[in-house]
Design goal:
The protein is an alpha/beta fold and 170 residues long. The protein contains five helices and six strands, in the order E-H-E-H-E-H-E-H-E-E-H.
């Protein structure tokens, strides 16, 4: 942003873009955990006044970035284009290094989407050692990561809108 005369403070305030479209992309793997993540995520979005919520289900975590990119490309010029994506999944460590590869691929790909798409992609993929740790993150002692992902999406949409509005004035 230009330094000439721009004196605006941006924050993660909680004002909601009521007409925003949020796309949740979730996995089939560990469905009971991921479904609970989605339920908490949807519940929080609806509580905050959002009603345009689309869910896409993909086979596994590695397929999440493809679905996000494809969805953006198909909907970016529509009135109800996505204003944020939320990636939900649960990758639970097994006996092979597959866990490490999957987590790296997904994390790197979601980072790449955040750097290339004009809307935020929220990382709501649990990467845990055990199923018990996953359950602790869907309403247990570690909170509800689905709700947290929804909250992050709302805050990032807010920041994005504020940046757009403040740079139009500059």
């Amino acid at each position: 942003m230009s330094s000439s005369g721009l004196n605006t403070k941006l924050s993660t305030g909680t004002f909601t873009i009521k007409s925003a479209c949020v796309v949740i992309v979730k996995t089939e793997w560990n469905a009971d955990i991921v479904d609970a993540l989605e339920a908490g995520c949807r519940q929080h979005l609806i509580h905050e006044g959002l009603s345009n919520i689309l869910t896409i289900t993909v086979p596994g975590a590695v397929e999440i970035p493809f679905a996000i990119r494809k969805c953006w490309e198909k909907l970016k010029y529509r009135d109800l284009r996505p204003h944020a994506f939320i990636a939900l999944g649960a990758v639970i460590k097994g006996d092979t290094p597959h866990f490490d590869y999957v987590n790296k691929i997904v994390a790197d790909s979601i980072t790449q989407l955040n750097l290339t798409l004009p809307v935020p992609t929220i990382f709501g993929v649990l990467t845990v050692n055990t199923e018990e740790q996953a359950r602790e993150r869907i309403g247990g002692k570690h909170g509800h990561k689905g709700r947290e992902a929804a909250d992050a999406a709302i805050k990032m949409m807010s920041i994005s809108l504020q940046i757009d509005q403040s740079t139009q004035k500059a």
